[in-house]
Structures are given as structure tokens and as C-alpha cells.
Amino acid sequence: MTDPDVRPPGPPTAENLDYRVAHLADRLAAGHLGELGVRLVPHGDSVLLTGTVPSTQCRDEILGLAREELAGHPVHCDLVVAGTSSPDHGEDLT
Fold first, then answer.
1. Do 49 and 77 form a contact (C-beta atoms < 8 A)?
2. Residue 94 binned pLDDT confidence (cut-offs 50, 70, 90)
3. DSSP-derived 3-state class of residue 38
4. Which residues pair with residue 73 across a beta bridge?
5. Cβ(50)–Cβ(37) below 8 Å
């Protein structure tokens, strides 16, 4: 027996996507990552993630959160991992 008040989710809409993108941005900013440098750009029914993150683990976690929050929409990742290693040679200033 099904509950008549419980309806299955409808097809994804642009309004629904905008809400979900805003919710994901809030999760990224407020969560343990405290990530404010990632931009979430809706394009039609998909979302592009851009920006720079400190590590591959951070990038992978953000991508996982995005795929979870935006399930049903394609997520494209253009996140760059910042180089945090020390240089292997001196800088030539001449």
C-alpha cells in the first residue's frame, strides 16, 4: 500500500537545479572543508565545478559531494590542485 501524500520526485528542472547548486555551495562553505574557492556554474541541466583546491583528496571529496547533491544531473570537474611542493631548483633572476 502506498501513501497517497508521498509522491516520487519529478524530472529535474532548472529551478530545482539552481536550488540544489545553492545548497551544495552552502555545504561546501559550512562543512569541514570550508571551501570557498570552488565555483558551481550551472549549464543547462549540468553543472561545472571550477576553482583551485589544496589537495587531490579535497578535489575528490568535493566531486563526491557534488555528485551526491546533484544526482540526476551531469557534473563536470575542472578543479585544479594547487602545487604545494617546494621547488626543485632556484629561480634565476638575471
1. yes
2. confident
3. strand
4. none
5. no
pLDDT in tens, 13-37: 556 899 999 999 998 888 777 777 8
3-class DSSP assignment, residue 92: coil
**Contact assessment for residue 81 and residue 59, using Cβ atoms and an 8 Å cutoff:** yes
pLDDT tens for 44-76 read: 899 999 999 888 999 999 999 999 999 999 999
What would the grid cell of residue 48 be?
561545472
How many whole angstroms from its chain centre is CA 19? 14
Tell which phi-psi region holds residue 44, choosing left (phi > 0), alpha (psi between -120 and 50) or beta: left
- Residue 57 backbone phi and psi in degrees, to 5: -60, -40
CA angle 55, 19, 22 (to 5 degrees): 35
Nearest to 61 by CA among 86, 38, 42: 38
